């Protein structure tokens, strides 16, 4: 009797362990780059393929590459503003479909590389429009601007690939500035609001609220998608954790560094509270801290330095462009990241070629395997 009970307990324990393992394996399939999904949809309908490509494009905005994360981020955008969610959806679809029609590289299209600039253009057009939500005429520049990003991305990729640099969000930054310059604040069809510089000479009549400053750190992650609500911003951060916990840590760290940089030069309180001081720092910190460089203590410190540089550059550019009512968008993070990728010296050894960039944890594992292989090769040569 005792032996039977013991056997049953062991079987139950093995069953629970097997179930836990299956659950864990299932969860792991939803993390990282989800390359198995691409193989699954190869022979499926074009609509399903387009949906996956579009969702990858959604996550590319925040330097991730996971369609499930893209669905979570899209849900966050619709939660924050259904109008903004619609614009973002139309933007990523317009640019992705344009890439398919004009025959861009199929791997780039499938990886969402032709979708994220279009999404950013559409989101920023909606944010700066002073005509309010559900202004249907805005769909015209949204669709045209998103489609134009494909041609800029393709041309800049060809130009920058000789230095192994990504086109990144240069197309978005160029298109949105051109759009705002063309329309102006008093345009009868597409009016927009003027950008207020973070260093504008407006008295901060109230004392700085520490709670609001801390709240602005996660909002800095949400501002990458032009979202200033706390709930959707936290959901976006969850989506990044789903792709890569290491990338999420650097996102929060970079936003905190950007906020600290804003405090050090006394920017407007609103810039601190809304997260606008932090999002460029978050982008720069993520770029260096494990994505384009293998994670180590050196690259971690390098990522923090990049976040500071990006945040101060954003303040300077915002003050300069704000004099003519233009936003600095993500010029600071884009230029800082490009500069960091061009560095030489000991840090260059940690640089990952553009075509081999994966989730930070996978980059770290690949480097460890490569170093182990090199060590074995050297030992065999010595013998």
Summarize the structure in words.
With 383 residues, the protein is mainly alpha-helical. The protein contains 17 helices and no strands. The model is unreliable at 372-383 (pLDDT under 50).
The fraction of residues assigned to DSSP E strands is: under 5%
Q: Could you spell the SSE succession in H and E letters?
A: HHHHHHHHHHHHHHHHH
Mean pLDDT: 87
Instruction: Give the % helix.
Output: 55-70%
Could you give the count of β-strands?
0
Indicate the structural class.
mainly alpha
Sum up the overall morphology in one term: globular
Helical stretch count?
Answer: 17
Sheet bearing the most strands, described?
A: none
| Low-confidence spans | 372-383
Brief account:
With 383 residues, the chain is mainly α. It has helices at 2-29, 35-40, 46-60, 67-80, 82-101, 106-110, 116-128, 139-160, 170-183, 210-222, 230-243, 245-264, 269-274, 279-291, 297-322, 331-341, 360-382. It contains 17 helices and no strands.
């Amino acid at each position: 009797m005792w032996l039977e009970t013991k056997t049953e307990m062991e079987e139950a324990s093995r069953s629970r362990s097997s179930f836990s393992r299956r659950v864990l394996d299932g969860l792991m399939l939803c993390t990282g780059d989800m390359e198995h999904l691409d193989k699954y949809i190869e022979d499926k309908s074009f609509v399903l393929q387009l949906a996956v490509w579009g969702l990858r494009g959604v996550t590319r905005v925040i330097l991730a590459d996971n369609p499930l994360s893209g669905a979570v981020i899209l849900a966050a955008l619709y939660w924050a503003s259904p109008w903004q969610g619609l614009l973002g959806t139309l933007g990523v679809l317009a640019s992705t479909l344009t890439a398919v029609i004009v025959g861009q590289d199929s791997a780039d299209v499938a990886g969402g590389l032709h979708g994220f600039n279009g999404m950013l253009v559409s989101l920023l057009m909606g944010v700066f429009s002073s005509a309010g939500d559900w202004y249907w005429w805005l769909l015209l520049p949204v669709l045209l601007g998103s489609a134009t990003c494909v041609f800029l991305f393709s041309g800049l990729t060809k130009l920058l690939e000789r230095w192994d640099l990504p086109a990144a969000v240069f197309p978005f930054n160029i298109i949105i500035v051109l759009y705002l310059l063309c329309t102006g604040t008093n345009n009868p069809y597409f009016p927009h609001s003027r950008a207020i510089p973070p260093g504008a000479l407006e008295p901060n009549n109230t004392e700085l609220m520490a709670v609001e400053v801390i709240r602005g750190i996660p909002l800095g992650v949400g501002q990458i998608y032009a979202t200033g609500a706390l709930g959707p911003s936290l959901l976006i951060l969850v989506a990044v954790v789903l792709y890569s916990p290491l990338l999420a840590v650097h996102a929060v760290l970079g936003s905190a560094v950007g906020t600290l940089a804003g405090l050090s030069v006394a920017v407007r309180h609103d810039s601190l509270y809304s997260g606008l001081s932090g999002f460029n720092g978050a982008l720069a910190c993520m770029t260096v801290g494990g994505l384009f460089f293998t994670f180590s203590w050196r690259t971690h410190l390098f990522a923090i330095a990049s976040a500071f540089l990006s945040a101060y550059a954003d303040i300077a550019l915002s003050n300069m462009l704000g004099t003519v009512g233009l936003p600095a968008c993500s010029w600071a993070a884009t230029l800082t990241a490009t500069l960091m990728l061009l560095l030489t010296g000991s840090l260059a050894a940690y640089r990952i070629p553009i075509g081999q960039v994966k989730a930070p944890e996978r980059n770290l594992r690949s480097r460890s395997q490569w170093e182990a292989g090199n060590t074995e090769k050297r030992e065999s040569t010595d013998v």
